[in-house]
Amino acid sequence: MLRLTELKLPLDHTSAELEAAIAERLEIEPAALLRYSVAKRGNDARRKSAIKLVYAIDASVADEAAVLARHVGDVHVRPSPDTSYRFPVMAPEGWQGPRPVVIGAGPCGLLAALILAQMGLKPIIVERGKAVRARTKDTWGLWRRSELTPESNVQFGEGGAGTFSDGKLYSRIKDPRHLGRKVLTEFVKAGAPPEILTEAHPHVGTFRLVTMVMSIRETIEALGGEYRFETRVEDFVIGKDDKGERQLEGLLLSNGEVLPAKRVIMAVGHSARDTFAVLHAAGVHIEAKPFAVGVRIEHPQRLVDVARYGPGAGHPILGPAAYSLAHQTSLGRSVYSFCMCPGGRVVAAASEPGRVVTNGMSQYSRAEFNANSGLVVDITPERDYPGGPLAGVAFQRKWEELAYVAGGSNYRAPGQRLEDFLGGRPSTSFGSITPSYQPGVTPTDLAQCLPDFAVAAMREALPVFGRQMPGYDHPDVVLTGVETRTSSPVRITRGGDLQSLNTHGLYPAGEGAGYAGGILSAAVDGIRVAEALAQDLLGQSAAA
Ligand code: FAD
């Protein structure tokens, strides 16, 4: 099989034209093209008047060796990569040995547990939140009735933080073993649309994610795994191994039980602030890391479509457009768009009482009127929150509390028209763009609940973005705050064996541990850590 990349065709082409283009590019007769499939499809919209679809194709041809020989040195004609997944180890049939524990049923924990279950290791999954259906009701409670349930919300519960999201499933991580492909294949088995395997920028939207995590649960349970919902890990029992080194022995659960566990994948996400504090108190190595703060910005989706696609705006094959913008300010801050959601809505993403946090989500159709994106400014521990491993958490809480007050102390979010934000005056109403955040947005002055440097950096960047994308800085564009949970404020550092630097048996993983950002990269990290744990466990038991 050959992999042909960067094959470009006009938007409206037929499959016969695609086949002809493949044959022409490979310099073969049409009849010598035996079979082909699309490995990836994206688009190139740099010339708006002539937007192209860009294909990667896997092709079977009559004389593959001859075609490869003819294209020696051509980086776009290569043997197809082997993207199949192979388990590095498998438990003996009917494994009765120690069961690994996974804390957290977000994308990282779910894929870790699924891989462990597929290897025959019957994991136990401990999740502080509720199963996804009950969780959905609680999440809507905040959006519809201003009622926050601290253990069951956008951040906590089965499916993790990405469940009520746009479900974007791509990442820029290096992935030489094609583990992302394994994740997407499992998602398709669980009900995701098959095109996520071929789209360059796939997404599934929020409703599909709910049924997908239920389906993954059924698979894990059928393989002997066990879920414990509404069970929070409250402490870590750490002893010494026979070399005198720190060894995890068990977990103290919120029901008072101590669960014996010598190998635990900790995939708690970036909002498990209480768990970070417990880990720190227990002496587990943890350090502050950089992240970003800012606001959500909303534009009419049509404006984004026209800016990105020109006359191609609205073409069904392109769908609603996304964007990605970045600016380095004169004061050395980087301002960038983050987690852009075409045709979606801004969501209330708080998990703690008396705090307001924004994020974004969409349905599969991405058919809502507004596009939204984080507009955030980079921050570092050294410069912005010195003071120890948990100083980033304190920093987040401060701005989230100020946002709660600025919004009216009732979970409405503070918001501002862009023109008012740039002019340094509070908004008293919104204009032609209606904010989408529920339970509502209070027009006010966002400078009250953002660091001065972030306000200055965004004020510098917005007109620059307006020049890059006409209409981006329209006076009525809505800013809603605050966006503080862009990534984890801590790193729970691990060594080459993927275990905690100083606590054997603890495998920090995913976004909360600072090793992923986004659904796909968290799930890939879950696989890597599950493999490392299984190799350690089965290696040891084989020797025993
Ligand atoms: P999480 O998904 O945060 O999962 C952690 C789990 O651990 C949670 O279920 C939590 O309840 C549980 N937990 C925490 N502490 C404990 C404890 N002490 N005991 C037991 N259980 C515990 N990313 C994308 O790639 N695409 C998107 O479109 C996208 N949109 C998003 C939209 C929203 C609204 C949000 C909030 C996030 C979005 N993200 C998106 C980010 C993405 O959700 C995260 O990067 C991803 O979920 C991280 O996965 P994780 O498994 O590491 O952690």
TrEMBL record:
It comes from the Bacteria. Residues 290-486 form the FAD-dependent protein C-terminal domain. Gene3D superfamilies: 3.30.70.2700, FAD/NAD(P)-binding domain (3.50.50.60). Residues 101-130 form the FAD-binding domain. One of its GO terms (molecular function) is FAD binding. PANTHER family: FAD/NAD(P)-BINDING OXIDOREDUCTASE, FAD_NAD(P)-BINDING OXIDOREDUCTASE FAMILY PROTEIN. This is FAD-binding domain-containing protein. It comes from Novosphingobium sediminis.
